[in-house]
Amino acid sequence: MKKFKWWATLIVSAFLLVLSACGASETSGGGEKKKKLRVVTDAAYAPFEYQDKGEVVGFDVDFIKAVAKQAGYELKVEHVGWDPLFVEIKGKTADLAVSAITINDDRKQTYDFSVPYFLSTNKILIPKDSDIKSAADLKDKVVAVQNGTTGQEAVETLLGKENKNVKKFKDNNLAIMELKNGGADAVVADNTVIEEYVKNNPNENFIVIEDDGAFEKEFYGVLFPKESKLKVEFDKAIKEMMENGEYAKIYKKWFKVDPDLTELKT
Ligand code: ARG
Description:
Radius of gyration: 23 Å
Bound molecules: arginine
Shape: elongated
Number of helices: 9
C-alpha cells in the first residue's frame, strides 16, 4: 500500500509538469500570455512587404503587428513565398497570412478573410514609349505577371487561359525584371506596387496606366485557415484601429496621405 502511494505521487507530479509546460505558451484570455502567432508572407511586394537587411518590413507588417497588439497577441512574420503561404494556411502550419491578398470568392471557399483593410486594383506597367494605351491593347503583347495572383487572372481573361504570351513568375519582382530585360511588353499587378516602383526608379522610364473597365476594385484581407478563432478577434481589432486613428497613423507613414476609410466599407 505504502509503495503504491509513492509511485502514484511521482506519476501524478510528472504528468502535471508536462501539462504545465505545454500550456505555458498556449494559454489565452484572463490577462495571461497568449500564443505567439506565426504569420507568413511573400516579401517581394513593396511597399506592402519586402526584405530590408534580412528583415521583413512594409505597410502590411506594421499593420498586422498593430492589429495583433490590439488583440493581445505577439507575432513573428516570416517570408515563405506566395504559393507556399496558401499551402501553410490551408495546412494550418501558420496562424495567418498578410501579403496584399485580395479577398475573392474563389479563395473564400478554402480560407477565411478578415474585414477589408486596403483598396487596390490591377494596373499596367509599361515603358514610356510603349504603344499600349489600354487593357485591350495587351491582346497581342507579351505580359508578365506573378503566378496565382488576380493580375494573372485578369490578363488571362483578356488573352485567354493557355496563351503563351502570358508569362508567369513566382514573384512580382521577377515579372518586372522580365519587362526590364525586354522579355515582356508589360506587367499587370496591384497599382500601389507598380506605382511605387516607377516612383523609386525614375531612370528606367516606365509608366503606369489604368483601365477601370478591365480591372475591378479589389480589397485586401488578412488570410486565416477556415474556422480560425482568430478572425473574430482580429476583425474587432482592425475596426478599433480604424476608429482610434492607429490605422491612419500607419497608413500615413507609408503613403504620406490620410486614408479614405469610407472606401473600405463595401
Ligand atoms: N492582390 C493580388 C492578389 O491577391 C496580388 C498580391 C501579391 N502579393 C504578394 N505579396 N506578392 O492576387
